[in-house]
Request: fold
Amino acid sequence: MLNGKNAIVTGSTSGIGLAIANMLAASGANVTLNGLGNLDEIEAIRATMADSHDVEIGYSSANMLNHREVRGMVEDVQKSAGTVDILVNNAGIQHVAPVDEFPAEKWDAIIAINLSAVFHATAAALPGMKARGFGRIVNIASAHALVASPYKAAYIAAKHGVAGLTKTVALEVAEQGITVNAIAPGYVLTPLVEKQIPATAKTRDMSEDDVIRDVMLARQPTKRFVEAEEIGAMVVFLCGKNAASITGTVLPVDGGWVAQ
Reply:
């Protein structure tokens, strides 16, 4: 389906990003991974993915806090692979605190990684996409790109910004064969979220099942986590020819969260 296309997925050494990268590779795309972690473990992930799907899998250690490294990652892939056909902006971090207690350095880091890195990667990828008359940009936003919650000011500001940036870029390139969309997941059962369940159960003196249903999934009407593979499948669809007329959208994959 995506044979011969070259993709970059930021924040793809674990969780949602890794699921997206795997599904793009399974669809025939060559993928450049990006993210933090143990380099030996990352190399094992890279090699396994390449062997499993018979595609080229690269890795960039670009720090999403540094706009020069973000742009440099895109430029390096364009030089080595020839094109960047698909860009998935997935990297993100979170911090929870009241606005008047929110550390300034946490605000700056969240805005840099969750929003500014999306801008810089997009700006670096667009000239090549325009020259070829083809491109797919998918930004992984959040249900919090559409609704708010207390104590997450920086994250919600950044994700709302991603929604606006997505629409703006989509309009700018609408006649050039490039689509730009955002996916807005609800709670996804990533390794990071899994680790929070027993700790929350202990702190609140609740069962783990009750923590999942009544705390984590309180706003998700389906009362089930979104699967990371569901996000990956949506990305693959948006990158295919049957999604050529879908652009400038923020697509919830949230178990009904924002329908309320």
The radius of gyration is 18 Å. The helical segments are 15-26, 39-53, 67-81, 104-132, 153-172, 191-204, 208-216, 228-239. The CA atoms of residues 4 and 29 lie 6 Å apart.
